[in-house]
Design goal:
By secondary structure, the chain is mainly alpha-helical. 44% of the residues lie in helices and 0% in strands.
Length: 96
């Protein structure tokens, strides 16, 4: 059927993609780990209190990989760590 009517098949595929794409027009990406949870729960209340008490990135830290063309020394890596560290008021456990 595809070989017999290539234009008809192509137009059907394009139509299907347009219909599926129409659903994505109003989509807003949200990368919050808790944005879709019910608002009236104890866990939502607790999470909102935590996010207001701590700076961004402390509750869900980011792993950073450092690449270099030369071998980095321990003092150089420590300097990178200090530049990426959260404020001293917050104690975070070290994860190897």
């Amino acid at each position: 059927m595809i070989a017999a009517h290539p234009a008809r098949m192509a137009s059907m595929v394009i139509l299907a993609l347009v219909v599926l794409g129409a659903f994505a027009v109003g989509y807003k990406a949200d990368y919050s780990s808790f944005s879709k949870a019910p608002k009236a729960t104890q866990s939502a209340t607790g999470y909102n209190e935590l996010t207001s008490a701590f700076p961004a990135g402390v509750l869900s830290p980011t792993t950073v990989y450092i690449e270099s063309t030369t071998k980095l020394t321990l003092p150089e890596l420590s300097r990178c760590q200090l530049n990426l560290s959260p404020p001293k008021a917050y104690h975070l456990s070290h994860q190897p």
